[in-house]
Amino acid sequence: MRRQEWEARIQEFAQRWGLKFRNPALLQEALTHPSYHGIDPEVPDNQRLEFLGDAVLDLVVGEWLYHHQPDIEPRELTDYRAALVHRRQLAEFARMLELGPYIRVGRGALQKGRGAYERILADTFEALVAAVYLDQGLDAVRKFVLPLVEKTFPELLKQGAVLNYKGLLQEWSQHQGFGTPKYRVVEQKGEPHRPCFSVEVWINGKRYGRGQGYSRKEAEKAAARDALQRLGLLQTSTQGGASSS
């Protein structure tokens, strides 16, 4: 796809979602994945915008939760925010916007599997949020992001458990090349009819977290949550393809 055609298409995309960019270069940068440097090494990519978008999303989502969910405990608010800004959810937001076909990527980037594509979608969504923020301010970000949050949040409430902590920790561990986390019961106490388990989670020969619960499953979940907190991963945190011109 020629550059001028792509620029016209992404302007149409932005207008469809109510985004009127004063500086079109920000939109172009937001939708350009670093892998596109293999095609054109001179164009700016979206990595710096992605960094900023992560912080902006934390603020906007956290603010919405604070004002609209007054009955939720602070610890649960943190978990809900983490769920809403997690990579998997951001990729889903990108799908809801049908963002994929408008992203400029290198020719080999889409051949690295579903996980890589999820990351491209999530990172680009963060970059787009940052571009909106720099171009139009926080109010515009709220108008853009919060309808997606409001549509998604009721389903999170229905699920009961906010996050699959063990699944998230396994995802992180495998991405680091460490394999599957190992859970070990290190203590069992309490009454026979109601034992309390203490479990540690080990990754690559190192203890990452510890948790307690009245079942092994509950204790393993608590240990995984502890590990994610220690890693800093709870503090913030299928349709269409990207464009390779």
Keywords:
245 residues, 3-stranded antiparallel β-sheet, 55% helix, globular, mainly alpha, 9 helices
Question: Can you characterise this structure?
Answer:
The chain is mostly helical and 245 residues long. The protein has nine helices and three strands. It has a three-stranded antiparallel sheet. Strand 2 and strand 3 form a beta hairpin. Helix 3 packs across helix 6, helix 5 packs across helix 6 and helix 6 packs antiparallel against helix 7. It is globular, with a radius of gyration of 20 Å. The termini are close together. About 2% of the residues have low confidence.
Write the layout of secondary structure elements.
Layout: H1 3-16, H2 24-30, H3 47-68, H4 74-84, H5 87-96, H6 114-136, H7 138-159, H8 165-175, E1 182-191, E2 194-203, E3 206-213, H9 216-230
Antiparallel strand pairs: 1-2, 2-3
Helix pairs in contact: 2-6, 3-4, 3-6, 3-7, 5-6, 6-7, 8-9
